[in-house]
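Extended Data, panel c. Modelled sequence:
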Amino acid sequence: MAKNFIRVAVLLVASSSVVYFAKPLCVHLTSIQENDTIIFNLPYRVHLFHNISNVAVYSLIYTLQAPLVLIATFGYTGSDCLMVTLTLHVCGELSVLANRVENLNCDTQGCKENIRAVVSKHVRLIRMARSLEDAFNTVLLGQLFGGTFLICFLGYSVLANTTEGQETDLLNFSLYGFSVVVLLFVYCYIGDCLTNENVKLRNAFFNCRWYNLPTKESMMFVTCIIQSQKPLHLTAGKFYVFSLSRFSDVIRSSAAYLSVLRNLM
């Protein structure tokens, strides 16, 4: 699943970056075909020490800016791909641990060693999940607010360009807007997966026959049950919990801001 997300995310962001990079070139070619005044616009704003006066210099600088497409693509998706991969890894480990707990035989000779291994792994996974949340909650806060307003502004730009018939801008804004929506959906999806896998593990602990164990091992199991009752979340700024139900709230908020923006403009 993480590999599929990386493929889709990189493809979407790269497509948007390529369309944005090619926009000035399309305008330049259109000006040549229509014998209009040629404007040497560059895709990325840079400070030049001389004026662009001919096509050769313009082509050279345009070509030198091409690596920025890759930098923008991987710079925008790198942290997201890392977070999604690590979170789905923790979800998979929680699922494996829940399966081990469900199939745990409390009557065998090595039961004590198996229980200690389960408890040790549970503690490690809790630390991993909380470390992920601590590391990315600030990033996710920026992505949440930035994504909400970006969807609003990009939606307005798409509507404006549809009216004016600017196909290049329409394609660019549509691709970028779709990329933002997909990323927000993935945040909510993996947050929901993390919460659900923790609930499944908690149920597995409850359903296990821990009450038939010796006192020391049963207390270890009770500790695991208590820890599993504390939900594992991905949050934005420690207050906004990502889940699939919250994704619709983000889209509704963006649509409301878009409606207000259209009325004001």
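Helices lie at 2-33, 55-64, 67-102, 111-164, 167-207, 215-228, 244-264. This feature is highlighted in the accompanying rendering.
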